Amino acid sequence: MQLPPDDRDSSPLTGYTRAHWEAAADALLAAVEPYATPDRALYHLPGDHVSHSGHLSDGLEGYARTLLLAAFRRDETALGRYADGLATGPGGVWPHIGHRGQPLVEAASIALALRLTRPLLWDRLDDPVRERTAAWLADALTAEAWPCNWELFPVTVGGFLQDIGYRTDAARKAVDHGLERIEGWYLGHGWYTDGDGRKFDYYNGWAMHLYPVLHAWLSGDQDLLDLYGGRLHSHLVDYAHLFGADGAPLHQGRSLTYRFATAAPLWLGALTGHTPLPPGETRRLASGALRYFLDGGAVDRRGLLPLGWLGPDESVVQNYSGPASPYWASKGFLGLLLPAEHEVWTAPEQPGPAERADVVRPVPVPNWLLQSTRSDGLVRLHNHGSEDARYDPYYTRLAYSTATVPTATYDNSVIVDGDPSRTGIEPLGTGEGWIASRHAVREGITVTSLVLAEGAVEVRAHLVAGAPPGTPVRITGWAAVRDGLAGLRCELTPVSGLSEDLAGQTGTAEATLFVALARLTGEPDPRPLTDLVDVRMRDGYELSVGWASGAARAIRFTEPDGRSADAGWSVTVR
């Protein structure tokens, strides 16, 4: 992808200006154009992976998601091509919007694009085209959504239909219903779970915040904007810490093929005035993400975004993913709605959190601990509170980073009797430099885990309870550093209960404690782990940890008192 030369005088960090973002958008739009059907109502992008919704729905997805990019770009020539598709798509070519069907998702992108560009696109359509389009979209008002971020798609459609005065009562009800549905999933401090349970990932930013905030902003409802904008502001306090110094987002959660859609909430805060971040830091983080993917090969030789991460990668593909699914990355171009004179484009870039200092940051709502180091720009996430109902390596592992990928060999896991399962995660708290949780392996067997961190060093302690004596236990650490990140090293050193190959077995007591030191680092010649931390086992299930900095911790694992059938082992850190 050809972009303008770097302007390092005005942007000394990424070198990306508004002109780079515009050129990237134009290149992506030009690359998909040859794959439009003759009537331009569908975009059938190349690829072997057909989603479970089928070929026709995948073609609609290609239209809707690239239209969203054209809307952010506000290019009248490109929008004119999509106007052609509106002449034949709704009421003829496009599939019906039914209950829990993929067209509901794509209807939201189309409605949002039409709402954002109304004078440039919608107002220039012939009346019959507008009527057919509105009628097609209106089915989204009564379509049943999956109980997750999908509840916001009727909200987005309803907001547009209210604006144009079409079925306004039904539209208002759909908006009210969807916004009411997400209230139960808002858990405070800027964090939503994506439906029932504890599913925390990037859907917080590119869905749960994006749609309500944009709806409130576009509708001019100041009370709504204060509510949802305030939540976004709180979220961005944590969110800024999820990017490495190289721009890489943390490799955690599902739908990672949306790539630089991770920039959307950053721009959204600047667009609506609800952000804690200075303008230069907003552009640094967003531009860093875009540059990370473009420089890393996310765009193929045809200029297309294939299913994957830096390149094609089946490991990040879900059954709902089609060839055009990656174009939800269009959301990352939300910043182009900001005028060229806005300070987010004119202010000098400022370093992000991973570039400024070593940080170990507790995030209590998802029960995460974020650990970043300035020397190598890496960010690590210790996950002690997010999971999916199924075993998903992008939710279930104990740790993730901006430089590693989950592997089929169960990195960052506790494997009991060959079973790496981690279900029913119960957060046990997080604080300054530590985090803890308890999970089930299978019925009757639990693992209570504690991580302490300073700099790049981690102390990992796992108490296995309920397993018969002699049950084999294996601890795994960091693995699979991504291509192109030479010089990174992964370490895991046994401290207690483990052999040199990080294997052990349970004893005759009710529970057995396994302790190891871990490190993921890009430092070329780091000091030995044992020089940086001293771990001493005490009586029972206690240990003390002393750091080279002089900080010290005392930890006690406490067995259940038997007064509650649901009680399990707990951890005290002092």
Helices and strands in order:
Elements: H1 18-32, H2 55-73, H3 76-93, H4 102-116, H5 127-138, H6 152-164, H7 168-183, E1 186-188, E2 191-192, H8 203-219, H9 222-239, H10 264-272, H11 279-296, H12 343-346, H13 353-356, E3 359-363, E4 368-373, E5 378-383, H14 393-396, E6 399-401, E7 414-416, E8 423-431, E9 434-442, E10 445-454, E11 457-465, E12 472-475, E13 489-496, E14 503-505, E15 511-521, H15 529-532, E16 533-537, E17 542-547, E18 552-558, E19 570-573
Antiparallel strand pairs: 1-2, 3-4, 4-5, 5-6, 7-12, 8-9, 9-10, 10-11, 11-15, 12-14, 13-15, 16-17, 17-18, 18-19
Helix pairs in contact: 1-2, 2-3, 2-4, 3-5, 4-6, 6-7, 6-8, 8-9, 8-10, 9-10, 10-11
